[in-house]
């Protein structure tokens, strides 16, 4: 790989699939048919033996792999199933490993608690506010709503699968995020936060007779709806009737289009890491970023993030990420809520799984099966 300029975290970038190596001669020979099992040439521990669209993929051991002697499992079959069907197949011993959809979590936890795993994910779920549209062109309004929720209740009661409350956009457990700190108000009591929020709203002219009204856009789905209902209840209760939320749900494709067009006041958003390094989050809010749909433009922030490429050390980059997060937090662009987890079931005899990978990238070549 040849770089046009310095990228200190280039090694971490190679963890993203777009930088996986491909066999040039195979592509030139077969064109758009190069990914068929009989044509595909890869460099991994397994070879694609069979692929049935929307049904399954079968992999067999690659005898040419450089570390083949340490590969244990000879063949693996990955089935493409909907959540409930996949879980039922697992219960019937037809699968060794399966993800658990949110709606089945409690039931599976009760039945298979000793076979359940949870893994932190490099994803941030936030509610973004459009700085170009009233009332969120007023930083004090943004701050008031940020102060007005109980994140612990959201994580533990509304979700309750092991999610943790979150105050920042850049996860602290991503490479480079080690020095990121929560905003100052995270150390306040709920009562202190709510009192300050009500004060800010009152100073902006809002009251029970004239509450702050705005739309919150989210994509259709039970989990997203539950979060919005909880937000609505918290703002009403915690802020003394000074806020009146108007929830607006849209089908996924419509929701994405509305977000790109910036035709919203507040919007439910999630951002997952493309690779395990904090730049994948910090670059999101650059003035030139296509993902920056709230209209945040800050020369200091841009200069800080762009200085990453010439930072002399990993520790220096950690300092940059911490300062960048502080700028985001002080501008109250979003309301951070929780850090998600991946939840699944794994048969006890399947070992070497490594369920704590924050990107949920599990190496099949490291797994083995105990006699059972």
Write the layout of secondary structure elements.
Elements: H1 10-13, H2 24-30, E1 46-52, E2 56-61, E3 75-79, H3 83-91, E4 97-99, H4 105-112, E5 116-120, E6 123-129, H5 139-147, H6 151-159, E7 164-165, H7 190-203, E8 212-219, H8 222-238, E9 243-250, H9 252-260, E10 266-272, H10 279-282, H11 299-306, H12 314-331, E11 334-339, E12 341-346, E13 350-351, E14 368-369
Parallel strand pairs: 8-9, 8-10
Antiparallel strand pairs: 1-2, 2-3, 4-12, 5-12, 6-10, 6-11, 7-11, 13-14
Helix pairs in contact: 5-7
Describe the structure using short key phrases.
alpha+beta, six-stranded mixed sheet, 372 residues, globular, single chain
Give a description of the structure.
With 372 residues, the chain is of the alpha+beta class. The protein has helices spanning 10-13, 24-30, 83-91, 105-112, 139-147, 151-159, 190-203, 222-238, 252-260, 279-282, 299-306, 314-331, and strands spanning 46-52, 56-61, 75-79, 97-99, 116-120, 123-129, 164-165, 212-219, 243-250, 266-272, 334-339, 341-346, 350-351, 368-369. The strands form four sheets. It has a six-stranded mixed β-sheet. A three-stranded antiparallel β-sheet has the order 1-2-3, with no helix packed on it. Strand 8, helix 8 (222-238) and strand 9 form a beta-alpha-beta unit.
């Amino acid at each position: 790989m040849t770089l046009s300029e310095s990228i200190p975290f280039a090694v971490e970038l190679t963890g993203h699939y777009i930088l996986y190596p491909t066999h040039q001669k195979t592509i030139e020979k077969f064109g758009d048919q190069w990914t068929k099992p009989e044509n595909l040439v890869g460099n991994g521990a397994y070879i694609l033996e069979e692929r049935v669209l929307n049904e399954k993929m079968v992999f067999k051991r690659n005898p040419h792999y450089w570390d083949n002697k340490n590969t244990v499992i000879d063949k693996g079959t990955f089935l493409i199933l909907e959540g409930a069907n996949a879980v039922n197949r697992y219960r019937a011993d037809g699968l060794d490993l399966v993800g658990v959809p949110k709606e089945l979590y409690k039931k599976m936890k009760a039945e298979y608690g000793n076979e359940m795993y949870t893994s932190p994910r490099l994803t941030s779920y936030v509610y973004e506010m459009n700085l170009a549209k009233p009332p969120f062109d007023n930083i004090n309004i943004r701050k008031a709503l940020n102060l007005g929720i109980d994140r612990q209740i959201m994580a533990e009661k509304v979700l309750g699968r092991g999610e943790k409350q979150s105050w920042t956009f850049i996860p602290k457990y991503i490479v480079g995020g080690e020095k990121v700190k929560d905003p100052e108000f995270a150390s306040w009591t709920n009562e202190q936060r709510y009192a300050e929020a009500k004060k800010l709203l009152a100073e902006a002219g809002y009251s029970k007779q004239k509450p702050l009204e705005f739309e919150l856009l989210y994509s259709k789905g039970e989990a997203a709806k539950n979060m919005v209902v909880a937000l609505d209840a918290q703002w009403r209760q915690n802020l003394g009737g000074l806020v009146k939320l108007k929830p607006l749900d849209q089908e996924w494709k419509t929701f994405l289009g509305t977000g790109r067009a910036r035709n919203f006041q507040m919007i439910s958003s999630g951002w997952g890491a493309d690779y395990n390094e904090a730049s994948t989050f910090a670059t999101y809010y650059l003035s030139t970023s296509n993902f920056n749909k709230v209209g945040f433009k800050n020369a200091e922030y841009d200069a800080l993030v762009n200085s990453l490429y010439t930072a002399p050390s990993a520790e220096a980059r950690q300092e940059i990420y911490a300062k960048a997060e502080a700028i985001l937090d002080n501008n109250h662009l979003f309301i951070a809520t929780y850090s998600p987890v991946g939840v699944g079931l794994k048969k006890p005899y399947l070992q070497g799984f490594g369920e704590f990978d924050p990107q949920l990238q599990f190496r099949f070549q490291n797994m083995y099966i105990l006699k059972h």
